[in-house]
Write a structure and sequence with these properties.
Helix 2 links the parallel strand 1 and strand 2. The N and C termini lie far apart (122 Å). The protein is mainly β. The strands form 3 sheets. The protein has a 10-stranded parallel sheet, covered by helices on one side. Strands 3-6-9-12-15-18-21-24-27-29 form a 10-stranded parallel sheet, with no helix packed on it. A 10-stranded parallel sheet has the order 4-7-10-13-16-19-22-25-28-30. The protein has 2 domains: 137 residues, no CATH class; 125 residues. The protein contains 2 helices and 30 strands.
Length: 333
């Protein structure tokens, strides 16, 4: 009898082990993630992690995702309208975040928008990519960048600002903390803004390239007030200064070491293709080469030396000048 009892216990133990082992090894099929769930769920990937924001969305939803995002994370805006009433802020210390739009995603300033930009970027190495931003002809800029090494790419920025609170499409603006520098605007269309298309104020060592900047109320591009050593390359700067609020296609003032190369600057209204305004200070070491500066309302290039003069400026002879109403270049004393 004793032996039989031992064998029974062994059989029971083995059966129990088999049942437990089978349960532990059983795999459940993954649960499907619904489209609605994707608007708030963080999906693991390497090296980045991705959030999805469904449309329509409103200010707080996008700001919440920005606040919880970490370095290298991506926020994808689904197709449809995303409404902004107060600035979406990427503050100092919020770095390496990408906000990317799917085809058909549009960020819209809403009618009760606070008088500020749709985006304010003080952090570094952030990217806004493949986004359309419709300012709705409401006050202030579309995007303001204060930080360093940020990029706006492959995006459309339009209808920002009005007469009550003027605004640029994109403003790169130095406040001193941090120093605004090394930012890039590339592959964008910037148009129909009340003032400047892309405005630089104290922004240095940046790159503005491969953009279409057209039909803005003031200049297409400004390089102003201690904006040094920027590279402006292969842009189409067309038919700007429609409201006669600026000095032409490109305006430069009190900025040194900038290079303007291989751009098409044409049909800009009321003023010249490029104007060295020199109200705040002169410009030193500007290189203007290989541009097509054609059919502008005044000169191809105007240098105003009424208060300050240019020094060490390149010869303008390598540029093409055709059909500018008053001539090729002039210096106004």
């Amino acid at each position: 009898m004793k032996t039989i009892i031992i064998k029974t216990k062994i059989r029971v133990a083995v059966a129990t082990f088999i049942v437990v082992f089978s349960i532990a090894c059983k795999k459940e099929a993954p649960k499907a993630i619904t489209k609605d769930a994707q608007s708030t769920q963080k999906i693991n990937s390497t090296p980045a992690q991705t959030y999805y924001l469904n449309a329509p969305s409103y200010n707080s939803a996008l700001q919440t995702l920005v606040d919880q995002a970490s370095d290298n994370d991506i926020i994808v805006l689904r197709s449809g309208s995303h409404y902004i009433t107060t600035p979406v802020r990427l503050p100092l210390g919020k770095n390496n975040i990408t906000i990317r739009g799917e085809s058909g995603a549009v960020i819209r300033k809403a009618a009760n928008t606070y008088n500020a930009a749709a985006f304010e970027i003080t952090g570094n190495y952030n990217t806004i990519d493949l986004v359309e931003l419709d300012g709705g002809d409401l006050p202030e800029a579309g995007i303001i960048i204060y930080g360093q090494h940020n990029t706006v790419s492959n995006s459309k920025i339009h209808n920002c600002g009005n007469s009550t609170a003027v605004g640029a499409g994109i403003l790169l603006h130095n406040t001193g903390n941090p120093v605004c520098s090394y930012n890039t605007v590339i592959g964008c269309s910037v148009y129909y803004n009340y003032m400047v298309g892309v405005s630089q104020h104290g922004h240095s060592d940046g790159t503005i390239r491969d953009n279409q900047i057209y039909e803005n109320g003031a200049e297409g591009l400004t390089i102003d007030v201690l904006s040094h050593n920027n590279y402006v390359y292969n842009n189409w700067i067309h038919k700007n200064n429609t409201g006669n609020r600026g000095v032409g296609g490109i305006g430069i003032d009190d900025s040194n070491g900038n290079r303007i190369d291989n751009n098409t600057i044409d049909y800009n209204q009321n003023r010249s293709g490029i104007t060295f305004q020199n109200n705040i200070g002169g410009c030193d070491g500007t290189i203007v080469t290989n541009n097509h500066i054609n059919y502008n309302a005044q000169y191809g290039i105007t240098e105003r030396w009424t208060q300050y003069s240019n020094t060490n400026t390149s010869s303008f002879s390598t540029n093409e000048f055709t059909g500018n109403s008053l001539g090729t270049t002039t210096i106004i004393h």
